[in-house]
Amino acid sequence: MTDTKAIVFDLYGTLYDVHSVVQQCDAAYPGRGIEISALWRQKQLEYTWLRSLMGQYIPFEQATHDALVYTCRQLRLDLDAATSATLCDAYLKLSPYPEVPAALQQLKAMGLPLAILSNGSAFSIDSVVRHSGLQDYFSHLLSVDRVKVFKPDPRVYTTACQALELAAHEILFISSNAWDAAGASHFGFQVCWVNRQHNTFDELGVKPSAVIGGLDELPALVGAAG
Amino acid sequence: MTDTKAIVFDLYGTLYDVHSVVQQCDAAYPGRGIEISALWRQKQLEYTWLRSLMGQYIPFEQATHDALVYTCRQLRLDLDAATSATLCDAYLKLSPYPEVPAALQQLKAMGLPLAILSNGSAFSIDSVVRHSGLQDYFSHLLSVDRVKVFKPDPRVYTTACQALELAAHEILFISSNAWDAAGASHFGFQVCWVNRQHNTFDELGVKPSAVIGGLDELPALVGAAG
């Protein structure tokens, strides 16, 4: 981690736990929460990739909604409008991972600008960050809405360079999503992959600059190179 | 199905069963064949989408190989070079679905040109088709290699219009992959989705023109509109 002038975080799955919706899924469909959340997330991602490739961009909330509709149909579960609204609303109130607030506080104290670059719309990002009370840590909340294509299209990562007025190699990008970390590495960011679940990094022709088990390990990593 | 002047087929999962590699997977890793084949196929598709979005195209065989490496690492299975070669080679010798040869014969007799448009390289497509002895049914075997991006990027579907010298609406495109059928529909093809496993069509903003349960239903569908 040399030359780092700003830290840019992915939001979904990195700072905030997308599977914190399991509880609401379980309330709506008792005993099925984990299964619903897993397929919902998988399809949500697929729809962002496929929509981008087709040149048929839609806001992230729409992809989230469409993925929920698919999930319930595929699992043969009835989905009425009220349940759909409740579950999609849960994506606006995700919980940060437990170690995140303290890690952000330490990183902020080190004097580096912190930003978020997310597939979410500006409204979604703002909602999630404010709901968790973490808004004061970030200088920039950046949405793919500006370029109307999803990660890992390089146009998305470019928006962070433009907003922060930095070269790609001056940005340390943090993501738990291996495909996002790979896209950011190909783009030219320094990349730290957060591997909380002991997963295998994807075989996409590039490796992250660093791997950590949680955000609590990030201040030491950044400090060691400072 | 009006105005149809040619029928263009997807290959992997539509004419040929990608899970016919289960047997070879099971021989290499007893009892794990189904699990390996499912994750391998999922990752193979993801890598084609992600590589396309990143602007990091590789031939389909490389994506197939990379997905196998990921799969074995994630499932904590040792993968030596010989096993990797054997399993990847199985993708060059896929079995057609049982009803496919007779359906192609009937369609050919109806006088419409038949073609394949596939994510595979020209070598892979040719290998699979010749291994099954079905090469004489097709006037064109079209690979994404020409445009160096994978489906569902519209540039792929364009190659079929160019090769067949037809407008998009004059082509009937056949795929079992809902995301491929959706991409082809957005592009402007007439599309028939082959739903052998009673799956749910993806929520990607478009519906196929027709749905059939197997290729044996296709001659009647085409004939009825002729």
From TrEMBL, chains A, B:
TM region(s), chain numbering: none
Superkingdom of origin: Bacteria
Enzyme Commission number, as recorded: 3.8.1.2
InterPro entries: 2-HAD, HAD-like_sf, HAD-SF_hydro_IA, HAD_sf, PGP-like_dom2, S-2-haloacid_dehalogenase
Protein function: Catalyzes the hydrolytic dehalogenation of small (S)-2-haloalkanoic acids to yield the corresponding (R)-2-hydroxyalkanoic acids.
PANTHER family: HALOACID DEHALOGENASE, TYPE II (AFU_ORTHOLOGUE AFUA_2G07750)-RELATED (PTHR43316:SF3), HYDROLASE, HALOACID DELAHOGENASE-RELATED (PTHR43316)
Family membership: Belongs to the HAD-like hydrolase superfamily. S-2-haloalkanoic acid dehalogenase family.
Record-given protein name: (S)-2-haloacid dehalogenase
Gene source species: Castellaniella daejeonensis
